[in-house]
Amino acid sequence: MNTQEREFAEKPLAAKLQKKRQDILANSLRVFAKEGFGGTDVQVIADLAGVGKGTVYRHFGNKEQLFLATAKHCLDVLGEFVVKQLGGMEASEALPAEVGAIETLRRVASAIALYYQRTPQAVEIMIQERAEFRETVFPSHLMYRAENRAGIDELLKAAIASGEIRKVDPRKATNAYSDLIYGSVISGVLEGGKSKLVARVDAAMGIFLDGLKK
Questions:
Q1: Residue 213 carries which DSSP code?
Q2: Membrane-crossing residues (predicted)?
Q3: Are both 116 and 167 inside the same structural domain?
């Protein structure tokens, strides 16, 4: 079997393994969110995913690594969801030129809120990660924010240069923007208002973004 034939033969296996991994993560999200890290039995996750417990450990090593992979999975899905809500990668990249920075920021915030409104379990994972691994792990959602802040910083700088918004410190404005989104989402879930996260974030964004206008 030559290299090309081997690669062709391996593709279905790789796809099958990836699907199995995604099934495990989807079920671990539900179980960890409901039972908490300490109360979760990995065997329950394995049963729901239709695999053996050993398969879970082969993919993720141990319970802690499974939890952290679940936290990262939530953010990977969030990123894909936001891009989809904005019309796809090409459309999302063209959005600032078409509707301006303020409207772009509003739509991004609304898309993030919609993801958490539809998947409130992801908020539970966010909270648990901070509680369980405060001393050992840098929170996944803060890492996600750090990885994506450069784009918001640049968007704000361009909007200041064009005169769309008043002169502000882009880094401080980005911090405030992210804090408002995630603060509103977490508060909404903790207060029992997970079905109204979009409205809550939209209200906060309305006040914040109006304050940026020149």
A1: B
A2: none
A3: yes
pLDDT, position 194: 87
pLDDT of residue 3: 53
Q: Are residues 42 and 84 in the same domain?
A: no
Angle between helices 42-49 and 3-39 in degrees, nearest 10:
130
Which ranges of the chain have pLDDT less than 50?
Answer: 5, 7-9
Using alpha carbons, list the distances in angstroms from residue 113 to 67, 150, 162, 186, 189. 23, 20, 28, 10, 11
- How far is 187 from 169, CA to CA, in rounded Å? 26
Are residues 117 and 164 both part of a single domain?
yes
Closest CA relative to residue 125, chosen from 45, 189, 197: 189
Residue 9 pLDDT: 46
Looking at residue 11, its pLDDT comes to: 60
Phi-psi region of 2 (alpha: psi -120 to 50; beta: other; left: phi over 0): beta
Question: 186 and 87 in one domain?
Answer: yes
- Domain residues for the domain of 5 are 1-61
Last residue of a domain, one of 18, 33, 61: 61
Same domain for 198 and 109, yes or no, is yes
Burial of 1 (0-12, 13-18, 19+ CB in 10 A): exposed
Read off the tokens for 59. Answer: 């993919």
Same domain, 189 and 93: yes
